[in-house]
Amino acid sequence: MLILAFPDYLNQAQRLADRLAVPLAEISLHHFPDSESLVRLPPSLPEHVIICRSLNQPNDKLIELLLAATTARELGAKRVTLVAPYLSYMRQDIAKQPGEAVSQRIIGKLLASLFDDVLTVDPHLHRISSLDQAIPIKNAVSLTATDAIAEFLKQQFAAAILLGPDSESKQWVAGIAKQTGFDYLIADKIRQGDKQVAMILPEYDYADKPVIIIDDMASTGRTISKAAGLLHTLGVKAVYAVVTHALFCDDAEAHILAAGIKAVWTTDSIDHPSSCIQLDGLLATALNTMLRT
Ligand code: R5P
Q: Which of 105, 140, 143, 150 has the most CB atoms within 10 Å of its CB?
């Protein structure tokens, strides 16, 4: 077995390889002036390779994944596994207007055609209940970072209120609340545009309490900054945020900081200065289980 890591996920893949005691090779990438990619794998591969890369900023990465997985098969790999802790294109799961691409289904089918197994963490599945409905293969494995996040929060706080900014976040917030014993609340959110969010907080005595906003991802940061702004008007002690996937597009971080958040913590599904919750233990356990079955 060999772990093949794209450069943008090298540190996390190395930690995973160390845990599994499996060798690692870096996939070499060259970007031509016209923006095409040259992908180079080690010319000699074992029967099973595990390709590791998160799929934030996905468009180029998906093409490079197609090139890498196809080349791995051409070089003799019989089993090709994808570890993509952040899986993109999962939110567009219906056509809201006639003619729209249902990206979740299309990208899911592409990944199913390339990989024998796909492992990811907290994918944004809204209208479907399991990952294999999006990626139609037997081993489509959806893990959750809630235990790792709960362990981290237990070390930071003796007590706090957890706030999920929308109904979709309830699955993660409730899981973390169960592990930490902290109370949790779920807000009502309406997304009015890419960077416009309206929100109503549930009634609660927030005064003088630390509140931790929990979400699966921060993209534009508008969800977190809106929640933080509302919480501050209610006299909370301090606002923190934990998200699984640190997308932080454009001015997201500036927006979050301007909303008076004391700290933002994320997992290392995407490499970012805030990524202090490591997922290699979770991924290694899941891979070991998968390999035994
Ligand atoms: C959406 O339902 C997700 O769970 C997140 O709340 C959302 O993607 C965050 O996006 P943004 O940071 O752009 O508000």
A: 140
